[in-house]
Amino acid sequence: MTEPIRALDEQDEPALLRDQFRQLLRYRTLLVTGVLLGLLGSGWLALSGEDTYAATGEVSVRSATSDPFAAGASADKGINIGSERQTAVSDAVGTIAAGALAKQGDTVEVGALLSGLQVTNPPNTLVLKFAYTGRTPEQARARAEALAEAYLEIRRERTEDSIDNMVDGYRAQLKPLTEQRDRLAEQETGTGDDVSSARANLIVAISALNQKVSELRALDTTPGYLNKKPVAPQHPTGAGLPLLLGLGGVVGLALGLLMSWVRLVFDPAVRSTRELVRSLGAPLLGTLPRERATAGTLLAIGRPGSRLAEEYRAVAFRLAYDPSFAERRRLLVTAPRGDNDMARAAAANLAAAFAEMGRDVLLVEADLRTPSLADDLGAAHPGRSPRWATGNQDRGWPSDSRANVDVPGSGAFTLVAGRRTDNVPRALTSAPVSRIIAEGGRPGAVVIVLAPPVLSYADAVALVDRVEGVVIVCQPREVHRSDLERIREIIGAAGGSVLGTLLHPGHGRLDRRARRNAPRDGRGRQPATREPAAPRGRYGDPEVAGRTGDPAETLGLRTVDDGRGGRNSAAGHR
């Protein structure tokens, strides 16, 4: 088209994020499933779990000191609070606490007792918080208090053991000094000053050791204080049912988004219009709206107030002013694969839109395997070849398959209806078909060719070199990215180019129900349902039904040839 396709890298990042988020929201089933799983899991935890209670006590840790009231005395001298925290959760503390609880009638193993304990240290303090979680309030209080006291007890024992060991060491040093002092005292009589000096030195050393022993004995070995005794809690711990449900919903939503993202990554279908444009290498011509009033009908052009008709007109105008199409005025309409109904409707409505613009339009149905366009447009009598195609005198398809189709209030176009043929490739590559397609080069003429799905049959590829311009009609969620890339390669290799894509919403629930319940003909196909057109007056305004007393007759889009080369519409003479 006239405007180059911008790469996704040129798009602003917020727009890409919004597009990806919208793609995730398409998988509503996965999102709802994730939320439901989260709610069910949180509800099960809230209703099936036992109530637990937590009791907390605080212990202030201090070191042994000789005079806690002396100037410069520090309570944190030599204390490593990290090591003390590890000691508080050790098996030694658990053993002492289990013994104390056994005397109270609460028999518990050390491992089970320590499993409910949590010891923390507030920053920049010498305080240890003992938090115990039990099945009953009294159990939590008793075990938290027993563990805190067991920690103080084992810390006191270790401090006293250290003092005793040091005292024993000093006494071991005093024993030889005392013995030597006694020997020197015996030798002091009649000796000189050397013996007296040595004895005096021993006395000084013995006095220093005795002083150290006295200082150790005078140490305050209090390990700490239980600042906050554990009390029985009044309410169970843990989140309540409302909070658990809220958390479950959030976790479930995150799970649903994760599943949607995984589904999105492995989804081969086209996920957005940007991805469709990039895969096909052609711009988006338009998106067809879904109209309930058009369910089962083919032509929307000529229907008053139809949004679908306005979209077809916009696409036709965009093609008319596109240089690549305006140069040759030939267009091939096809679908990727599968159902060709929307491509059939697009070809017929684009033909009606160009006829409404005053062009001489020739619609060629190149679907020779399942032709149905003539039946869908209504029973149209064969018409004489248009003035701009009178030079073609060939017999057989496609020359003898012309019919004039009139669109009330919009114009008329010539239909070359398809016909079942044994050798489809030979029929599509025949000289008459080439001459008919070549007529699109005449001034004011437009040739629109309807081909079967390009990936289902090679019929469209056989026509691309003569038509060149191709419009792909597809539903984004029903086509794969690899299919679009393959279509672009096939059409490019055949010498054509993709003018753009036309998106349709697909068959809705009401459309599928109407198609399923509609009667079928002898060949198993559903005949098209036509909405009657109101009689029109001289200037195309609807006439009032029943002016003459007779019931107003409403006819479809059927046109007949008057035998003189002109066309008479059932809705009024042209």
UniProtKB/TrEMBL annotation:
InterPro entries: Bact_polysacc_biosynth/exp, P-loop_NTPase. The chain crosses the membrane at residues 27-47. Residues 506-517 have a biased composition (Basic residues). Keywords: Membrane, Transmembrane, Transmembrane helix. Residues 375-403, 502-574 are annotated as: Disordered. PANTHER family: FERRIC ENTEROBACTIN TRANSPORT PROTEIN FEPE (PTHR32309:SF13), TYROSINE-PROTEIN KINASE (PTHR32309). This is Lipopolysaccharide biosynthesis protein. It comes from Streptomyces drozdowiczii.
